[in-house]
Amino acid sequence: MADTPTQDNQTELQVSAVKDTFMTVPADPRLKTPEAASARLTWRAGEQSMDYVATAGHLDVRGDTGALIGQMFSLSYVKVDGEGSPDTARPVTFCYNGGPGCASVPINFGGIGPRRVRTDGIDHLPYPIEVEDNPQTVLRQSDLVFLDALGTGYSTLTEGADNADIFGVDGDADCFARAITTWLEENGRWQSPLYLFGESYGTVRNAVLMRLLGERSVKLCGVVMLSALFDWVQTLEGEDLYHLGMTPTMAAAAQFFGRAGQGIEEDEWFERAMDFTENVLAPALLKGDRLSPEREAEVAHQLSQFIGLPEELVRQRRLRITLDDFRRNLLADEGKVVGRLDMRFSSDAPVAVQGSSAWFASEDAADDAVEASWTNAFRAFLHDELHYKAPARYLANNYENVGTDWKWEHKQPGFDYPSISPNVAYDIAVAMRRNPHMKVCILGGRYDAATTWWNVVHDMACQFLSPQLKERLEWHRYGCGHMAYVDIPTLRKMGNDMEAFYAKL
Predict the structure, then answer these.
(1) Residue 79 gets which letter from DSSP?
(2) How many other C-beta atoms lie within 10 A of the C-beta of residue 437?
(3) How far apart are CA 251 and CA 340, in angstroms?
(4) pLDDT tens track of the chain, all 505 residues?
(5) Which residues lie across from 195 on neighbouring strands?
(6) How far is CA 386 from CA 23, 39, 75, 302, 307, in A?
């Protein structure tokens, strides 16, 4: 007969059993969502001032059945009166960057938020990082909500969520539509004029969202497209649209570095390059090897004069200069390469053995100069002023896990089958036809080689909008790159343009 356990033995057995249980249950690998945090702050610029409440927190993204898909991080800035109450008649603008795989810090602490990292032209920012009240913030016109796409920043996916349903053109827009409606409901802002402000891939998101939100009975007043991309074909080397779009931008960079266009005003030079692209280069590229050697030589000479590369190289490439070609060769005699997001930036060239084009595309002085400073300032703001208990890691750029497997297939309105090479200009046109009171503002820079200006002009021209709808579409081209707000003169111009845009009925 076995001995009966004593009370001490029973306690030891219970403790042992608990230890065994903890040892066999794996730790939850997901980050816990922090509690929301807010602070009342004051924005000042000259003699102007404004009280606002900044709130960091998460928005539930739920499916139609209520199942949780993820939690999207948001940082909102809402103007308040002396009693601390918001004005629900003020517009609300939902803002984001792109990637796909980028969080919203650049457009927030770089560009249109109430706080801004002070930049220094086209130079890399040193320590200390200087943060100032942004005199051109869009908070002057609208309350702002900055959103981080799921899988970026502090935004999380629920356990078991299917990335393929989220990381793609249509899945991404669906998640943002759900997050936006969650914010409107939680904050009681359904009657506020609603705007979208997207940069880069954020303009693809804008295009789909402006149609999708309308289909879900969420009425938009306006959409701002900064550094826009609409037709995916233009990103593919070898496609005529790629090479046509790159040409005016390369011409602008060549002029900036004194390799072409000397003595000609910058916008005039860009317009000449646009004209050459459409009327000379386009017909030549369309002919392929049917172009006579004599005509090819003539066009190569003209192209060389515009983009500052040797005529021999242009002919060797059959008039098809890639961005990689241009960035590596324009300043090769100085041992430098030019930037991609903003071609005015430059850095020492990598050594010859570092020949990977994919790697080189991400080696960008324009990004290196400012990105870390923005993220550091943003993290300090959350920690020091909002007292937000954030996780240690912030995924400012998670392209490796989000963008590399992005599902580019898109259900374009009016087409029978999904396209694997989306052109979201169709979504924009459909949304504008359905809501003719909505206004759209397209902003871009001459030196942006990531989302080239010529292509966006071409894409919208192919939508054949009526004269009435064209009046609701405005264009502003600046002397800047992809991140327009890095450039102080551009920031001022953009601030004035935004003031006029929001004032327009």
Answers:
(1) E
(2) 11
(3) 14
(4) 434 334 343 334 343 433 333 333 343 445 578 899 999 999 999 999 999 999 999 999 999 999 999 999 999 999 999 999 999 999 999 999 999 999 999 999 998 999 999 998 888 888 899 999 999 999 999 999 999 999 999 999 988 778 888 999 999 999 999 999 999 999 999 999 999 999 999 999 999 999 999 999 999 999 999 999 999 999 999 999 999 999 999 999 999 999 999 999 999 999 999 999 999 999 999 999 999 999 999 999 999 999 999 999 999 999 999 999 999 999 999 999 999 999 999 999 988 888 888 888 888 888 888 889 999 999 999 999 999 998 878 999 988 888 888 999 999 999 999 999 999 999 999 999 999 999 999 999 999 999 999 999 999 999 999 999 999 999 999 999 999 999 899 999 999 999 999 999 7
(5) 93, 222
(6) 37, 5, 10, 56, 48
How is 364-422 classified by DSSP, letter by letter? -HHHHTTHHHHHHHHHHIIIIII-----S--BSB-HHHHTTT-B--B--TT-SS-BSS-
What radius of gyration do the chain's Cα atoms show? 26
What's the rounded Cα separation, in Å, for the pair 209 and 110?
24
Q: How many residues does the chain have?
A: 505
> How does DSSP assign 272-326, residue by residue?
HHHHHIIIIIHHHHHHGGGS-HHHHHHHHHHHHHHH-S-HHHHHHTTT---HHHH
Contact partners, residue 487, CB within 8 Å, separation at least 6:
119, 121, 445, 478, 479, 480, 481
Beta-bridged to residue 395, according to DSSP, are 153
Contact 156, 60 (CB under 8 A): no
Rounded Cα distance between 182 and 302, Å, is 54
Contact 229, 236 (CB under 8 A): no
CB 479 within 8 A of CB 364: no
Contact 459, 209 (CB under 8 A): no
Nearest alpha-carbon partner for 129 in 145, 118, 140, 115:
118
Q: Is residue 355 a contact partner of residue 335, using CB atoms and an 8 Å limit? A: no
Q: Which of 37, 30, 57 is nearest to 182 (CA)?
A: 57
Lookup: tokens for 338:
């030019």
Backbone φ, ψ for residue 225 (5° rounding)? -110, 110
Phi first, then psi, for residue 39 (nearest 5°) are: -150, 145
Cβ–Cβ under 8 Å, residues 249 and 338: no
**Dihedral (CA of 154, 160, 166, 171) sign:** negative
pTM, two decimal places = 0.91
Q: Which of 152, 113, 197 minimizes the C-alpha distance to 378?
A: 113
* Whole-number Å distance between alpha carbons of 227 and 204: 10
